[in-house]
């Protein structure tokens, strides 16, 4: 089954629009400036739009793909007014996101097996543990039985923070002593989930960008021990990225994708940055779907991601 929409469509749009305000202003200002005084889309307009997208942290390769698509449209249709440019941009950008745009937002929990196991990865400071806590709370409110695993055994603060979120969400947290084997914690967590009939398991992992071989070995070991309990585990490997770091988040993502089979993304802290355009490039260039975005401090500010709603919000307010 698909996870419910935690709030109404109107409330979701309000949070999205408010959370993307800084990025929206940046994109709108740059696009508007790029085509000022022009009545039709020509090479100069496209060059200006290209610069506007790159400076909004969309990424060079993704920007070039967008411009190439627009050039093809202009060539086919012979004449395109600048007033049509916004709708063309929205269509072409929406088409670039990884994943099926018709899919249920967020995670889809199959009815044929449980627990559904989510392993969460990402560097320290990106909002990984907070994202786990918010997911646990939302899943619990949807009527699901959730268990958390504190497999980041290298930082006492990470375990303590997860326990606080567990109390807040009303879900159990499985932990061991500091310095314990993370794979052992993951094994205990999944075993507890099976024994207690839990629907969802979320495993927090260490957020260290240590050498790639070490990271790969650690994450592989965690996956392998969980499979001893549930053969399908993990069902998802969710990479959490800090959207406020723009293209730096893209570089982090590449490192984790080399180390493990990342299946989905959560991009946090979009409310405090003008670099939200990075969401487009990260999903497109890495070919990994975005499942959640963080738009503020509140529980409800973690939203299941919808690429069309995101793009509509991003370009809303451009008057050409």
Automatic annotation (TrEMBL):
<dbReference type="InterPro" id="IPR004390">
    <property type="entry name" value="SR_rcpt_FtsY"/>
</dbReference>
<keyword id="KW-0472">Membrane</keyword>
<keyword id="KW-0378">Hydrolase</keyword>
<dbReference type="Pfam" id="PF00448">
    <property type="entry name" value="SRP54"/>
</dbReference>
<keyword id="KW-0342">GTP-binding</keyword>
<dbReference type="InterPro" id="IPR042101">
    <property type="entry name" value="SRP54_N_sf"/>
</dbReference>
<comment type="similarity">
    <text>Belongs to the GTP-binding SRP family. FtsY subfamily.</text>
</comment>
<feature type="binding site">
    <location>
        <begin position="204"/>
        <end position="208"/>
    </location>
    <ligand>
        <name>GTP</name>
    </ligand>
</feature>
<keyword id="KW-0675">Receptor</keyword>
<dbReference type="GO" id="GO:0003924">
    <property type="term" value="F:GTPase activity"/>
</dbReference>
<dbReference type="GO" id="GO:0005047">
    <property type="term" value="F:signal recognition particle binding"/>
</dbReference>
<dbReference type="GO" id="GO:0005886">
    <property type="term" value="C:plasma membrane"/>
</dbReference>
<dbReference type="InterPro" id="IPR027417">
    <property type="entry name" value="P-loop_NTPase"/>
</dbReference>
<feature type="binding site">
    <location>
        <begin position="268"/>
        <end position="271"/>
    </location>
    <ligand>
        <name>GTP</name>
    </ligand>
</feature>
<protein>
    <recommendedName>
        <fullName>Signal recognition particle receptor FtsY</fullName>
        <ecNumber>3.6.5.4</ecNumber>
    </recommendedName>
</protein>
<keyword id="KW-1003">Cell membrane</keyword>
<dbReference type="GO" id="GO:0005525">
    <property type="term" value="F:GTP binding"/>
</dbReference>
<dbReference type="InterPro" id="IPR000897">
    <property type="entry name" value="SRP54_GTPase_dom"/>
</dbReference>
<dbReference type="InterPro" id="IPR003593">
    <property type="entry name" value="AAA+_ATPase"/>
</dbReference>
<comment type="function">
    <text>Involved in targeting and insertion of nascent membrane proteins into the cytoplasmic membrane. Acts as a receptor for the complex formed by the signal recognition particle (SRP) and the ribosome-nascent chain (RNC).</text>
</comment>
<keyword id="KW-0547">Nucleotide-binding</keyword>
<dbReference type="GO" id="GO:0005737">
    <property type="term" value="C:cytoplasm"/>
</dbReference>
<feature type="domain" description="SRP54-type proteins GTP-binding">
    <location>
        <begin position="289"/>
        <end position="302"/>
    </location>
</feature>
<dbReference type="GO" id="GO:0006614">
    <property type="term" value="P:SRP-dependent cotranslational protein targeting to membrane"/>
</dbReference>
<feature type="binding site">
    <location>
        <begin position="122"/>
        <end position="129"/>
    </location>
    <ligand>
        <name>GTP</name>
    </ligand>
</feature>
<dbReference type="InterPro" id="IPR036225">
    <property type="entry name" value="SRP/SRP_N"/>
</dbReference>
<dbReference type="InterPro" id="IPR013822">
    <property type="entry name" value="Signal_recog_particl_SRP54_hlx"/>
</dbReference>
<comment type="subunit">
    <text>Part of the signal recognition particle protein translocation system, which is composed of SRP and FtsY.</text>
</comment>
<dbReference type="Pfam" id="PF02881">
    <property type="entry name" value="SRP54_N"/>
</dbReference>
<keyword id="KW-0963">Cytoplasm</keyword>
């Amino acid at each position: 089954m698909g996870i419910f929409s935690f709030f109404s469509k109107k409330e979701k749009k309000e949070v999205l629009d408010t959370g993307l305000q800084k990025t929206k202003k940046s994109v709108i200002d740059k696009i508007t400036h790029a085509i000022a005084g022009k009545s039709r889309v020509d090479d100069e307009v496209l060059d200006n739009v290209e610069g506007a997208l790159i400076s909004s942290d969309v990424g060079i390769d993704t920007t070039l793909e967008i411009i190439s698509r627009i050039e093809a449209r202009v060539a086919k249709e012979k004449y395109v007014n600048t007033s049509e440019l916004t709708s063309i941009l929205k269509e072409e950008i929406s088409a670039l996101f990884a994943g099926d745009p018709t899919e249920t937002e967020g995670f889809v929990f199959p009815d044929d097996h449980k627990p559904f196991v989510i392993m969460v990865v990402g560097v320290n400071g990106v909002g990984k543990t907070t994202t786990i806590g918010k997911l646990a709370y939302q899943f619990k409110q949807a009527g699901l039985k959730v268990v958390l695993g504190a497999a980041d055994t290298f930082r006492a603060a990470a375990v303590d923070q997860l326990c606080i979120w567990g109390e807040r969400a009303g879900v159990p947290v499985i932990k061991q002593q500091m310095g314990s084997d993370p794979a052992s914690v993951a094994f205990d967590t999944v075993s507890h989930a099976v024994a207690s009939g839990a629907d969802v398991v979320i495993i927090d992992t260490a957020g260290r960008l240590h050498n790639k071989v070490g990271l790969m070995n650690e994450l592989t070991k965690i996956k392998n021990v969980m499979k001893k309990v549930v053969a399908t585990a993990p069902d998802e490997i969710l990479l959490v990225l800090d959207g406020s770091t723009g293209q730096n988040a893209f570089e982090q993502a590449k490192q984790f994708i080399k180390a493990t089979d990342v299946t989905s993304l959560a991009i946090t802290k979009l409310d405090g940055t003008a670099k939200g355009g990075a969401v487009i490039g990260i999903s497109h260039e890495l070919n990994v779907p975005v499942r959640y975005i963080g738009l503020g401090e509140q529980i409800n500010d973690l939203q299941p991601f919808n690429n069309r709603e995101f793009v509509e919000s991003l370009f809303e307010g451009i008057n050409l």
